[in-house]
Amino acid sequence: MHDAVAGDAVSDAEWLRIPDSLFYSIMSAEPVVNPNYHESKAMSDPWVARALGLDEKQARKWAKLDIAYMSAICTPRADLEVLKLMNDWNGWVFAFDDPFDEGAYTSDPIKAAEEVIATLAVLDDLHPPVCSVQQPVRHALQSCWQRFSKLAPPQLKYRWKRQLTAYAVGVLQQVGVQARTAAGEREGKAAKPPTIEEYMEYRAGCVGAYPCLGLMELAEGIDLPHDVVDHPSLSGIARVTVDLVTLQNDICSFKKDIDSGETANIMFLLKDQGMTTQEAADRVGQMLHDCYRRWYTHLVALPYWGDSIDRQVLKYIEGCRNLALGNLTWSLYTPRYMGDQGQRVRATRMIKLR
């Protein structure tokens, strides 16, 4: 879809100024790091390496990414057990997602669908134990699901299963887009790129943020009725959270995506529309402003459910903010996207593209 653009994505820019609005409004808060961060990382990194069958090099690379730091900001009040669970689940989601992004399932919707069906099957409590040697990724998810199920109230367990299912369907939608693009290229036809709205819709499904909401609820001890969580105002706040994560990821990963040839990034889509690299980043900045406006619009429209429910709603809203804040803070901290330059980028707002 955007291969031609990805190839010359920096032809008009050596440096990129990232949007100041990444750090505005609800993202201007000072992140709070869970005091269990270091202990959870020390417990989780070996578990991820063992469960997923990582070799020594892969295990070192995973530990260096320090996903536990993101978890510790996303859920600053989680106890050690839940914080480790969030770390472990993030290990699973990286391993599950990679073959769909740039591996065996990238342009094969049939194989991708078969893997998604087999993966979701482990969320059935009657599913037999998955062999960690033969199917390490499914085994890791089954372990996370079983631990979540023991800790969560029934309605939260149902919600997390729904969120995991929606995420897997979103990944399949992304594969469908990639497959149509590849088919068009083989036939010498340019695939019609998605609109911005279509892109944000399918990215909302596959970015992996919705299942984090369920983990956040577990960490905060939230037990809200479905009709409250599904209310347009609260579900709207959740969607803003997901959109913030998508836009943060696309800005922070832009240089990495250029270097790797990855094209699922709104920057490439905007450049397809004739924008320069800087104009595309500025447009993302405007979209971030819009996210903050939507957030407060939904807040104003929140009904009152009574003091006991309202207290939990306030925790849910704060948790949504923390998820996006944790993602942004970690994206500028981890070497995954910018090597050791993340803090310099945050201070100067400038990314060197070449």
Automatic annotation (TrEMBL):
<keyword id="KW-0460">Magnesium</keyword>
<dbReference type="GO" id="GO:0008299">
    <property type="term" value="P:isoprenoid biosynthetic process"/>
</dbReference>
<protein>
    <recommendedName>
        <fullName>Terpene synthase</fullName>
        <ecNumber>4.2.3.-</ecNumber>
    </recommendedName>
</protein>
<dbReference type="InterPro" id="IPR034686">
    <property type="entry name" value="Terpene_cyclase-like_2"/>
</dbReference>
<keyword id="KW-0456">Lyase</keyword>
<dbReference type="Pfam" id="PF19086">
    <property type="entry name" value="Terpene_syn_C_2"/>
</dbReference>
<dbReference type="InterPro" id="IPR008949">
    <property type="entry name" value="Isoprenoid_synthase_dom_sf"/>
</dbReference>
<dbReference type="GO" id="GO:0046872">
    <property type="term" value="F:metal ion binding"/>
</dbReference>
<keyword id="KW-0479">Metal-binding</keyword>
<dbReference type="GO" id="GO:0010333">
    <property type="term" value="F:terpene synthase activity"/>
</dbReference>
<comment type="similarity">
    <text>Belongs to the terpene synthase family.</text>
</comment>
